[in-house]
Design goal:
The protein has about 400 residues and is an alpha+beta fold. Among the domains are: about 130 residues, Sulfite Reductase Hemoprotein, domain 1 (2-Layer Sandwich), CATH 3.30.413; about 70 residues, Sulfite Reductase Hemoprotein,Domain 2 (Sulfite Reductase Hemoprotein, domain 2, Alpha-Beta Complex), CATH 3.90.480; about 70 residues, Sulfite Reductase Hemoprotein, domain 1. Helix content is about 25%, strand content about 25%. It has a five-stranded antiparallel β-sheet with strand order 1-2-5-4-13. A five-stranded antiparallel β-sheet has the order 3-14-15-12-11. It has a five-stranded mixed β-sheet with strand order 6-7-8-9-10. It is globular and about 55 Å long.
Length: about 400
């Protein structure tokens, strides 16, 4: 069966049973992949200084396979680490300020509205919330026991990250009112902007307590039956009628965005989320302030004067990144596939590249995710066409395409 096979109506992936401890990797506790150890570096809010991005690029080149992988939570991964490289990596990350708490390394998953405080839209600049949340998580020893898949989302009101289904979320409803979300649903609990971080940390502690009371094996709040309601019941504060949470955003900002101050931000897709060390260093050199890593596997260079933004657009495209909003790479993603993953039936990245070159993409601008097995690792939230590797009748590998737009 080829990637152009007729769509099926097979059901999408469901949450697995949690009869084992969460083994989500971190910077210190790596995952043994088929191509070597894999380390995941948390980047709260997706914000990196140029110096920190250079440090990660150097680690990828010297210790890993020469590239950084962008994750659906705005974090970065290093692959192909040899045995014993963990100590050298930890030393580099600590020196760069990327490892503020060894105990809390895996739980520092915080996504934030991209270009908050810079681009038009949004009620609040949530960058201070990200810093305060990260510091609050690291300051509480009890929160080190949260699973590595725990996620916090802070949305400035534009609705770009509220729909990611985070365990704990903040959504600015107006300049003076912030909603608390649990598992992506509005609880009705409210605070002002000054109390938003405290409310999120209180909800995080309540989730930790509820999870512990139920055996401590759930990886996500949504896996606890009635969990969001039970966690909300542990909290006090003003309440209002819940509001609808925005649906997941497809790909985030693309191309050139004009900021409120007249400067520009250049947003580029990273094909299949794989950023080479050379590309990372190019981004670091272009950035007058920070580089932003988004949950949609793209990168943003903000705060550029218009002329510099035009030059950067050309330079990034020449380096293999995709600033053009019309590029298909804004809507194609893939898991690691072979040879990195022993579970994968195919080299899905090579096959996805071939499909993009051939124009074999879904109609109507739908997103497409290639996966080497039914686990569908790295799958974006929302409506996605799944291209899943399967064993063909002749014993070889083929693909089954599942389009959510198709009705059986």
């Amino acid at each position: 069966m080829s990637p152009a096979a007729a769509p099926s109506t097979a059901a999408g992936p469901s949450a697995p049973g949690r009869d084992r401890a969460d083994a989500c990797p971190g910077a210190l506790r790596t995952h043994a992949a088929a191509d070597g150890a894999l380390a995941r570096v948390r980047v709260p809010g997706g914000t990196l200084t140029g110096g920190r991005l250079r440090a990660l690029a150097g680690a990828a080149r010297d210790l890993g396979d020469g590239a950084l992988e962008l994750t659906s939570r705005g974090n970065l991964q290093l692959r192909g680490l040899p045995a014993g490289a963990e100590a050298a990596l930890a030393a580099r990350l600590s020196a760069a300020g990327l490892l503020p708490s060894a105990a809390h390394d895996r739980v520092r998953n915080v996504v934030a509205s991209v270009l908050t405080g810079r681009a038009p839209g949004g009620h609040v600049d949530v960058r201070p919330w990200v810093s305060a949340l990260d510091a609050g998580l690291c300051a509480d020893p009890a929160l080190a026991d949260l699973p590595g898949r725990f996620l916090v989302a802070v949305d400035d009101g534009r609705g770009d990250v509220a729909g990611l289904g985070a365990d704990v979320g903040l959504l600015a409803l107006s300049p003076g009112s912030v909603a608390l979300l649990l598992a992506g649903v509005d609880t009705g609990l409210r605070s002002g902007p000054d109390g938003a971080v405290d409310l999120a940390l209180a909800a995080t502690r309540a989730y930790s307590a509820e999870r512990g009371a139920r055996g401590g094996t759930a990886w996500r709040l949504a896996e606890l039956p009635g969990g969001p309601r039970a966690v909300a019941a542990r909290l006090t504060g003003p309440r209002s009628a819940p509001v609808a949470v925005p649906s997941p955003v497809g790909a985030g900002p693309a191309g050139t965005v004009v900021q409120r101050d007249g400067r520009h931000a250049v947003c580029a897709a990273v094909p299949l989320g794989r950023l080479t060390a050379d590309q990372a260093e190019l981004l670091a050199a272009a950035a007058p302030t920070d580089v932003l890593v988004t949950p949609w596997r793209s990168v943003v260079v903000p705060d550029l004067p218009p002329a510099a933004a035009a030059r950067s657009t050309v330079d990034l495209a020449a380096a293999g990144l995709e600033p053009d909003p019309a590029s298909p790479w804004w809507r194609v993603s893939a898991c690691a596939g072979r040879p990195g993953c022993a579970r994968s039936l195919s080299d899905v990245r090579a096959d996805a590249v071939a499909a993009v070159a051939a124009g074999a993409l879904p109609a109507g601008g739908a997103r497409q995710h290639w996966a080497g097995c039914e686990r569908r690792c790295g799958r974006p939230r929302g409506a996605v066409v799944d291209v899943v590797a399967v064993t063909a009748p002749d014993g070889g590998a083929g693909y089954r395409i599942t389009d959510p737009a198709e009705k059986g």
